[in-house]
Design a protein that fits this description.
The protein is α+β, with helices and mostly antiparallel strands and 509 residues long. It folds into three domains: 165 residues, Periplasmic binding protein-like II (D-Maltodextrin-Binding Protein, domain 2), CATH 3.40.190.10; 141 residues, D-Maltodextrin-Binding Protein, domain 2; 150 residues, 2-Layer Sandwich (Alpha-Beta Plaits). The protein is built from 16 helices and 21 strands. Helix 2 links the parallel strand 1 and strand 2. The radius of gyration is 26 Å and the shape is globular. The relative contact order is 0.11.
Length: 509
């Protein structure tokens, strides 16, 4: 009876500690495939959680309709979305002003807090060279509420006196990436995408810039991306009114503290954040296009013609000259971008399995250790080693061994939460970082993972290969001077698991 009573008391204390950690939800507008956005912004959630005592920031990704529904249901605490969507949301919901504005980086040196729209066509389309050539063409866009992928381009056409979308066939796809695919495969003649996307795809190795050309290309000082429209403020980071002022201040400080060389910036693909921008130009665009909540026109036909006349006269000559100069610059920088992208990928990702490499893992563990030391919250490291891996290579061949490593990495990755991380340290040795996790929680997870691996068979060349794993666990302590010291304790526990017969889980101590 006494033992049972003690257990009940411990369970009650543990439940109280877990409940004390409040979850804050950050809604992010998904302008690219959700899976890519989740991978890209995972580190931002971890970083912001580290800035808040006893609170965790959870990321959720929405399209425009989903974001509006989540706000209506009071499910969000923070919002990170495109500027035109922000203007509309602010009209229909109780939002504060922006607490920070995103900064983007085009070449690792130039940062900008502005964005625009880019009009793309396939490089071999000699019949489309200026805005007027869009009449009668099929135009792909991810949707009519996207500032950089629809509204900015629509405004330029309006300013040039070209009726839009009259005489043009709009093709709505699910995201910016699919706009590029539609243009390249000939399903659309023209594509509207946000500035920076083409450079991102080129950096990721999924697109070569010379496959496309840009229409109505503009050039702005210190703006590093190809753009076809005027510039607008970058994405705002917004707090809902119910979030405590102290929490908003901590989040704002954390955002403004980000620099391009920090792991969170490199992982997220942003340069950081700056003080809130003025979003009046976005409101002016909404008024000109008679978009909600500004459906009523602000001026008459004579004012419109006076305002658009200089664009019609200057667009043809300036557009051709800017296009020629910018294309020469893009061609000259193409090889440099490819090299930078390859080096960046090599620096953070294991080439065989696609999970984080040792360098990236240690960087993430360094951030987590700082959080543990500052807030005394739990975290754990796991060392994993595939049992008798040399025997697999000798029996089935090295190609089969590679297949086993890839399958094992995917199995571990799928078993983790969004805030956790798996890394291949080398050979058949892997490590896992479990944030906000006690040693007992880590042991339970490790045991489930061990059983999952043991029950799974890897099929290769019509053969089923059985695999088991040994796991060592160590907790992060405030006294730890570096992630390497935690790894050493986890490795010692792994050694005991191996010595005890393999296919086991051992905890430090």
């Amino acid at each position: 009876m006494i033992r049972r009573g003690c257990l009940l008391v411990l369970l009650a204390l543990f439940s109280t500690l877990v409940a004390a950690e409040k979850t804050l939800t950050l809604g992010i507008f998904a302008y690219r495939p959700t899976s890519m956005m989740e991978h890209q912004y995972r580190m931002l959630g971890i970083y912001l959680s580290g800035a808040l005592p006893d609170q965790r920031v959870e990321l959720k990704f929405f399209d425009t309709a989903g974001m509006e529904a989540a706000l209506a249901a009071n499910q969000l605490d923070f919002v990170f979305t495109n500027p035109s969507h922000y203007v509309l949301l602010r009209h229909h919901n109780k939002l504060t002003g922006a607490i920070a504005t995103r900064q983007a980086s085009g070449n690792g040196k130039i940062t900008t807090a502005a964005l625009g729209g880019t009009i793309i066509v396939r490089a071999d389309r000699d019949d489309i060279t200026q805005l007027a050539d869009l009449v009668g063409k099929r135009i792909a866009t991810p949707g009519s509420k996207f500032l950089g992928a629809y509204l900015a381009q629509a405004y330029e056409l309006q300013q040039a006196g070209i009726p839009f979308p009259e005489g043009m066939a709009l093709i709505e796809v699910s995201c910016n990436d699919e706009v590029v695919e539609a243009v390249l495969f000939g399903d659309a003649d023209v594509g509207f995408v946000r500035s920076g996307l083409v450079e991102t795809l080129n950096r990721e190795g999924t697109l070569s810039v010379d496959q496309l050309k840009f229409i109505n290309l503009q050039k702005f000082p210190k703006f590093p991306f190809a753009v076809s429209t005027r510039l607008y403020p970058e994405w705002p980071f917004v707090a809902l009114p119910h979030v405590p002022e102290d929490t908003v201040k901590r989040i704002a400080r954390a955002l403004l503290f980000i620099t391009p060389d920090m792991p969170v910036a490199q992982s997220t693909g942003i340069a950081g954040f700056t003080i809130p921008a003025d979003y009046e130009p976005v409101q002016q665009l909404a008024r000109a296009l008679r978009l909600p909540p500004y459906e009523t026109p602000e001026f008459g036909a004579e004012d419109v013609w006076l305002r658009y006349r200089w664009l019609i006269l200057g667009a043809f000559g300036a557009g051709a000259l800017i296009t020629l100069l910018s294309m020469r610059l893009l061609v000259g920088n193409r090889r440099l971008r490819k090299t930078e992208a390859a080096l960046r990928e090599l620096a953070t990702t294991d080439a065989l399995t696609g999970v984080a490499n040792r360098r990236q893992f240690l960087a993430l563990a360094e951030v987590e250790l700082a959080r543990v030391q500052r807030f005394a919250q739990p975290a754990a490291l796991l060392m994993l080693d595939l049992d008798h891996f040399k025997r697999i290579n000798d029996t089935y061949g090295h190609a089969a061994g590679d297949a086993v490593l890839v399958d094992f990495a995917a199995t571990v990755h799928d078993a983790l939460r969004q805030v956790d991380c798996v890394s291949r340290l080398g050979g058949e040795e892997f490590a896992v970082l479990l944030t906000g996790c006690t040693v007992e929680d880590a042991r339970m997870f490790a045991e489930r993972l061990r059983q999952l691996v043991a029950e799974r068979k890897v099929s290769y060349d019509e053969q089923d290969i059985e695999v088991t794993v040994s796991i060592g666990i160590a907790s992060m302590q405030r006294a730890d001077v570096s992630p390497e010291s935690v790894l050493e304790r986890a490795d010692a526990a792994l050694y005991r698991a191996k010595a005890a017969g393999r296919n086991r889980v051992e905890v430090e101590g």
